[in-house]
Amino acid sequence: MNYVFILLITALSLVFLWEMRHSLKRSNVNSRLIKQYRNDLQNKDLLTDIYAYCQQDYKLRRIVKKYGLTLEDVEKIYQKLLLWGNFHKGHRFVPITAFLYVCTLEYLCQHKNDDAKALTMKCMNFLHI
Question: Could you tell me the pTM of the whole model?
Answer without folding.
Answer: 0.86
